[in-house]
Amino acid sequence: MTLHIKNVWLYDQGQVDIQIDAGKIKAIAPNLPEIDGAESFDGNGMAAVSGLVNGHTHAAMSLFRGFGDDMQLMEWLQTRIWPAEAKLTEEDVYWGSRMACMEMIRSGTVAFEDMYWHFHGMAKAVEDSGLRAGVGAVMIDIAGEKQGQECRDQAVQYLEESGRYSDRVKFTLTPHAIYTVSAKSLSWSAEFSDKHNLPVHIHLSETAFEVSECIKQNGVRPAVYLDQQGLLTPRTILAHGVYLDDDELELIAKRGSTIVSNPVSNMKLAVGGVFPYQKAAELGIPIGLGSDGAASNNSLDMFQEVKTFSLIQKHANNDPTVLPSAKAWQVVTGVDAPLIGQGSGVLAAGENADILLLNRDEPEICPEHDFVSNLVYSATGHVVDTVIVAGKILMKNRVIDQELEIRQEATARAKSLCKV
Known about the structure:
The chain is of the alpha/beta class. It contains 14 helices and 18 strands.
């Protein structure tokens, strides 16, 4: 598909046209000539920016948004989430993920890293939505070796079957955490990842209890334990990282792994700490930003997430200069974490055509004293007018195909699942 977007505004270049061909940006310059056969539309002076990247979420948990808020974590899990999840079907996951994808499109996210049950339900939802995502079925084997073998066999099967989807769907290994996955399955994941060059997405050091239990059981802190299993590599995505100490951060930096912070979920679940961004950044660790699932956030709007991310770092460090808006914008667009998002996070010829058009008339981004500051500190997903992923228009004038059907189907399934 060839696309010609006329009359858009880039905050560092001014008024330009953007030409897109075969899912890539072909050219960006003022007054570009029309291409024969190209679909063309006028951007009406809207701002063109890179799409946002959600580095850690559980998309289908949009079905559980608001189901048991303001509860203690274990009570919430045991009485609400786990019983509901036990009833999930692949179709439930498909529709819950479609609703999450719709929410992400409406708030400017073009790619995300997911971890949940029913791989094909998630993968088909991503394919049908037009987004990009890293997708893999959760690996949990606390029930014993039989469960562990089933998880490993399932990963092999899903890798083989992942070829039925486009390259926007990236198969990813997703062992849940060091406290829910055996050492055998963790080390197997490391070997399988190395053999097939697969990303690995895992929770790490989200709570102080996780750290203390790891030390008690293994004699080392979580990052060291994960490294002992061979799972700290440049292909590894570590979600949360709230309780990583300086030695662990130095080890992660040495291994080249990526950390994804999830500040809103961490605060809502009251984990009691803040991801040590400043130290991680000083060490050159790739850093991304995630929402976590809608059951523990409850929004998937990455504009809201990046504001919280910047503010909590300033607050925790007692320093308003920490994580300025320009750097925060790099994080939320995936520039600082190449492993997530499948793109560069910049608009330039040769890069993926993953583009947002923002309505500059919205009061949240006026006046334009500092456009990027407005995006980080005041904008919400409401400013997004048009979303383009891989050169395809997914939303224009804030309209997405099948919106009503997706909302109705997901809502009906959520009500059935969440009966208590």
